[in-house]
Design a protein that fits this description.
By secondary structure, the chain is an alpha+beta fold. It has 2 domains: 130 residues, Ribosomal Protein S5, domain 2 (2-Layer Sandwich), CATH 3.30.230.30; 65 residues, 2-Layer Sandwich (Alpha-Beta Plaits). The chain has 5 helices and 11 strands. Strands 2-3-6-4-5 form a 5-stranded antiparallel β-sheet, sandwiched between helices. The chain has a 4-stranded antiparallel β-sheet with strand order 9-10-8-11. A hairpin with a 2-residue loop joins strand 2 and strand 3. The chain is elongated, with a radius of gyration of 23 Å.
């Protein structure tokens, strides 16, 4: 199983062109779940309340197992699917790509719409910086002051990111580590009998 995926680094917007009077404005937005994708579409409608259509597609999950293509009233398959196919062609996931259309008075027909929405998605994705992200897990620890030195040496050896720490009656620590290292990381603590490990996800 893969522990990494390709997505875009940050939101890209307002990449526009005109096709026979109609204006198409492309947006590409990194998202983590369907709720976030839907909220981003709502925000686009707030930005463009007078748009004729806002068509979009999103792909989510490590293997792209969650996806949707929405034509928003355009002829079936003429908008959302061409956008989705551009996401696929880049091998991306956890991304929403949308195209805002302002109708210009001339009908484009289904082939013209397919071409325009494909171009809109391709243009905005060409502007985006594609990054490789690695799956991580969060682990919590509870341990005595006597074990603090040993715990921190293991944390440093695995380059785990310390998210927060607390020092009261016992020490507490929350770290983030690459998922592919998690089992080996946990195994490193087995000799320390008094260290309690809690997986957050």
């Amino acid at each position: 199983m893969s522990h990494s995926y390709l997505t875009i680094f940050k939101k890209i917007g307002d990449v526009s062109f005109k096709e026979r009077g109609s204006k198409f404005i492309g947006f590409a937005i990194p998202v983590n779940d369907e709720e976030e994708a839907k909220e981003e579409v709502k925000e686009l409608w707030k930005l463009h309340p007078d748009a004729t259509h806002i068509c979009y597609a999103y792909r989510l999950g490590l293997e792209g197992e969650i996806y949707r293509a929405n034509d928003d009233g355009e002829p079936s398959g003429s908008a959302g699917l061409p956008i989705y196919n551009q996401i696929l062609s880049k091998g991306l996931t956890n991304v929403l790509v949308a195209s805002v259309r302002y109708y210009g008075g001339t009908k484009l027909g289904v082939p013209g719409l397919v071409k325009a929405y494909k171009q809109s998605a391709r243009m905005v994705l060409d502007e985006a910086k594609i990054v490789k992200k690695h799956l991580t897990v969060k682990l919590g620890f509870e341990f005595s002051y006597e074990d603090q030195g040993a715990v921190m040496r293991i944390v440093e050896r695995f380059n785990a990111e310390v998210l927060n720490s607390g020092f009261a009656e016992n020490c507490t620590l929350q770290v983030q580590i690459l998922k592919q290292q998690a089992d080996e990381f946990e195994a490193a603590f087995e000799p320390l009998y008094n260290v309690k490990i809690i997986r957050d996800n």
